[in-house]
Design a protein that fits this description.
The chain has helices at 23-39, 55-60, 162-168; strands at 2-7, 12-17, 45-48, 67-68, 72-76, 80-81, 97-100, 104-105, 113-121, 130-138, 155-158, 170-177, 184-191, 203-210, 224-234. By secondary structure, it is mostly beta strands. It folds into 2 domains: 2-69, no CATH class; 75-234, Jelly Rolls.
């Protein structure tokens, strides 16, 4: 079934093609109609059934010339790994000594957000009841200038102090660990923008630390952190 939602106030239309006998199709119709009514609240709205109208009448109907209403929907870019060498990363009891990733440059892509997730694997005979942490860092200007010792490159870094660690970068994810050797710990996807007031930074990167008392697993494929750019598209 095809239904044309029309607005005589702003002269826009939105065509909905759905199967009324399908629960999924009818649910989609209800959602799209609700979105339409919200966008055109307090307007002179109506709907037409083009397939049930006389063809000649439809040709002369003014609503046939209304502009199609555009929808803004979420879109995802191709995922890509962070450049960060986590193999054999040493432990840090105070979480200040870890590994920095190469910064992601958003000046060209202009993504609204990044979703970040992945896995980190502990080494042999780690100490029980420890943790792995993933921090987010961002440039403070477009030079870019990074906080403290961070420089936007894949490298070992030691933050000056715990106080600076807690103020200069954001704790994005962490997991407790046990004493099982070579255990894979997965990190669910998190939003970068949510840690910076809802605004995606111009440049951002990761800082990874752990206090398991032994080096992380030495196999490269056992360590993986990836990002997926998020943007809006008009259809």
């Amino acid at each position: 079934m095809k239904i044309a939602e029309i607005c005589n106030t702003c002269h826009h239309r939105h065509d909905i093609d759905f199967n009324p006998k399908s629960a999924e199709g009818f649910a989609r119709f209800r959602q799209e109609r609700s979105d339409w009514m919200t966008k055109h609240a307090f307007h002179d709205v109506d709907f037409k059934w083009p397939q049930r109208s006389d063809k000649l009448d439809r040709i002369h109907d003014d609503w046939m010339n209304y502009l199609h209403n555009a929808d803004v929907k979420i879109t995802y870019a191709a995922s890509a790994d962070y450049t960060i060498t986590l193999t054999s990363l040493a432990s840090s009891a105070t979480f200040v000594a870890g590994r920095e990733s190469t910064a992601i440059n958003n000046t060209s892509n202009k993504y609204l957000d990044y979703l970040v997730g992945g896995k980190i694997t502990t080494g042999t005979t780690p100490t029980d009841a420890k943790s792995i942490r993933i921090y987010l860092y961002a440039a403070v200007n477009d030079t870019p200038l990074y906080p403290d010792v961070l420089d936007g490159t894949d490298s070992d870094e030691t933050i000056t102090s715990v106080d600076i660690l807690n103020s200069a970068i954001r704790l994005a994810a962490s997991t407790s660990t046990n004493n099982t050797s070579d255990r894979v710990y997965w990190f669910a996807a998190f939003s970068v923008a949510s840690f910076f007031g809802g605004v995606n930074p111009i440049y951002h990167g990761l800082f990874v630390v752990h206090d398991t008392a032994v080096n992380l697993n030495a196999t490269g494929s056992n360590q993986k952190l990836a990002q997926t750019g998020v943007y809006a598209t008009v259809i």
